[in-house]
Amino acid sequence: MATDDLNDSELWPIPPAWMMKCDTCAALYRRMIGVREAVTEASLTTSGAVDVDPFDSGLTTQLALGQHMALEHGPLLPDFDADCAVCAKREQDLQRATASEGFRTYTVSAAVEHRARHLIVPPVMTRRI
User: For residue 70, is pLDDT > 80?
Assistant: First the structure.
């Protein structure tokens, strides 16, 4: 597929400058991109005998970066996106998260990590998690 065949929702965003100034963000971002490139290369060059599912390592590296960004850079993350169904779900979860402290902690973490993903993965991917 040529780059011209991609729509805007499939394009990987350019990370913000503040993210590249953080050594941990930069290292996790490089790992995420490296895994993405390795999975793409493997899918093009291996036979069907090798599992090149990008949701194994690829998603793990995205979540690790998102978690770091949520914990260390929360105030720099974008607000919830009004056009993103997952953002709407995370906002609803935050409003309902009063049942237990553990559930509240998870809900807040998931919401902030999702907002971080808007900075590091294509929009089409943020609509899934």
Answer: yes
pLDDT at 122: 87
State residue 52's pLDDT score. 64
Structure tokens that stand for 91 in this block: 């906002």
Distance CA 63, CA 32 (A): 9
Distances (CA, A) of 30 to 1, 69, 116: 24, 14, 16
| Rounded Cα gap, residues 26 and 31, in angstroms | 9
What gap in Å lies between CA 86 and CA 115, rounded to an integer? 10
Question: Which residue carries 């050594």 as its tokens?
Answer: 23
Q: Rounded to an integer, what distance in angstroms lies between the CA atom of residue 127 and that of residue 129? A: 6
Token look-up 């990370």 returns: 15
Q: Tell me the residue type at 2.
A: A
